[in-house]
Design brief:
Length: 177
């Protein structure tokens, strides 16, 4: 990476003018920065740690992941954020997707128990759930708070507190301002 800022001797650009120095930006990410080779680490001018989102940031992430998803009135991003300490952005996305599929699963399970997966059984299951054909056609099955609570019961943060603390300690030694 050294020497990238200089052009080869005699290099010419448009109309015979000296060639401008190339611009190169190297962006890298690691969940295990302590595993980086020392020589490799030295080449990076800036080392920035992005911590796990705090409660307010998690609420904003829930608002973003819920865009375009029909939700019941009892779904509150702030409450979901309070229930998910230690969750990363990817964890929140996975949790939202899991909860969003639950209304559809509920209808399909009801259709199976009502006698199979045929169209008539599906229509009967929808009617039994109080879902109109227009709602089902538009995929406007609302995601409820209970769906999130159920999805949360089977979810855990993907980042251990010990790993986050280790990243913070590494940043104290090698991080940039």
């Amino acid at each position: 990476m050294d020497g990238l800022a200089s052009s080869p001797p005699g290099a010419r650009g448009a109309a015979g003018a000296p060639a401008p120095a190339p611009s190169v930006v190297v962006l890298a990410a690691s969940n295990l920065p302590w595993e980086l080779d020392e020589a490799f680490r030295r080449r990076f001018e800036k080392r920035i740690y992005l911590p796990l989102p705090d409660e307010g940031e998690r609420a904003a992430l829930f608002e973003v992941t819920l865009r375009g998803i029909a939700t019941a009135g009892d779904v509150a991003p702030r409450e979901l954020a309070a229930l998910t300490p230690g969750f990363s952005g990817a964890d929140i996305l996975t949790l939202t997707r899991t909860a969003a599929l639950m209304p559809i699963r509920r209808v399909l399970e009801a259709a199976r128990s009502a006698g199979g997966g045929g169209v008539e059984a599906l229509r009967a299951a929808l009617a039994a759930q109080g879902i109109t054909q227009e709602d089902a056609t538009a995929l406007a099955l609302p995601v409820e708070r209970a769906h999130f609570i159920s999805a949360l019961a089977g979810s855990k943060p993907s980042v251990r507190a010990e790993d986050a603390a280790r990243c913070e300690a590494w940043m104290a030694d090698y991080g940039s301002v």
